[in-house]
Write a sequence for this structure.
């Protein structure tokens, strides 16, 4: 019988701790080994008990969930899944936790049912199982990007290539190590698809914007791609681009249970701009982006994927590598430089008419 995933449940509410633990222990794949009431206890028990996964509440006395994640990642790297409230403040804090090293997050349906019904609790348990296999390393403060001076931005005068990013589990942290390293004067436009629910992609875009020379914002229907601009697909909407460079959003059928999907954006980019498209696929579970990468290659474009050595979850990149579609397979810290090499000055974005 497979080994059960050992979980530490952290929440300042005794009711929530009991309710969450009861849900977890009802699944034969999961075992709650301990509970903690605040961040200080969470750090101490993580170091002592070495759980496979920690579920972390955000707002707690003495030490909150954000500070606890930071201590855990520095002292005893352990996969953490944040349990977040569906509020704007909750989204901002969750993005901060993911930046600090948390693997994933789960939206608490309500105070009275923090793990949700059967279907929701099943989704949370699947996240725990994926998180238990995540690859983590100790993180120092020097790895956390610092906000840049926005007036320093100097955009290129034209677009040479359209770069389409795709990422999922572990993606926010990975994007924080790539997007801020892309200079604003590189002659590219960026479309970015990160698997996230409604409300969280805006917080992700705003955080990346504060760290980057590029302007980063959540896309709205009718946006146009532009040099020095990165548009993030909103949670709950597929994002596509046409040959005029106009971006549109739709609520078409989900793919792999997801909306937005990397495939959808890459497919439209390849159809509209052919060999001017560069696909970049980072850490994530599953195979979203593989079909899109194939279409980019068929149209004459190129594909870069993150190497297994730095992926939190080596799923999406592996699928592309296994299909023989990757032009470059690189550790995270080399990807921005590779994008620069493949997007030389002097080229011009060519629409396929």
């Amino acid at each position: 019988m497979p080994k059960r995933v050992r979980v530490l449940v952290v929440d300042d509410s005794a009711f929530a701790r009991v309710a969450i633990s009861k849900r977890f222990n009802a699944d034969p794949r999961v075992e709650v080994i301990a509970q903690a009431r605040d961040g200080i206890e969470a750090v101490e028990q993580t170091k002592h008990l070495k759980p496979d996964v920690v579920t972390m509440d955000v707002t707690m006395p003495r030490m909150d969930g954000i500070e606890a994640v930071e201590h855990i990642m520095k002292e005893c790297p352990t996969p953490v899944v944040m349990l977040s409230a569906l509020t704007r403040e909750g989204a901002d804090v969750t993005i901060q936790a993911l930046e600090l090293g948390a693997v994933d997050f789960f939206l608490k349906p309500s105070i009275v049912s923090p793990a949700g019904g059967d279907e929701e609790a099943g989704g949370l348990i699947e996240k725990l199982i994926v998180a238990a296999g995540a690859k983590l390393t100790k993180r120092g403060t020097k790895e956390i990007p610092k906000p840049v001076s926005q007036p320093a931005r100097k955009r290129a005068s034209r677009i040479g290539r359209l770069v389409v990013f795709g990422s999922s589990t572990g993606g926010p942290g990975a994007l924080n190590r790539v997007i801020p390293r892309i200079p604003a004067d590189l002659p590219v436009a960026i479309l970015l698809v990160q698997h996230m629910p409604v409300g969280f992609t805006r917080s992700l875009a705003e955080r990346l914007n504060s760290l980057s020379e590029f302007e980063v914002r959540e896309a709205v229907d009718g946006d146009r791609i532009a040099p020095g601009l990165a548009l993030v697909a909103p949670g709950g909407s597929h994002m596509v681009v046409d040959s005029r460079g106009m971006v549109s959003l739709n609520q078409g059928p989900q793919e792999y249970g997801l909306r937005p999907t990397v495939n959808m954006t890459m497919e439209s980019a390849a159809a509209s701009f052919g060999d001017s498209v560069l696909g970049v696929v980072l850490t994530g579970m599953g195979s979203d982006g593989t079909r899109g990468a194939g279409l980019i290659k068929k149209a004459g474009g190129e594909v870069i994927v993150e190497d297994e050595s730095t992926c939190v979850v080596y799923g999406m990149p592996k699928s592309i590598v296994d299909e023989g579609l990757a032009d470059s397979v690189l550790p995270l810290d080399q990807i921005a430089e590779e994008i620069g090499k493949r997007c030389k000055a002097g080229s011009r974005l060519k629409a396929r008419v």
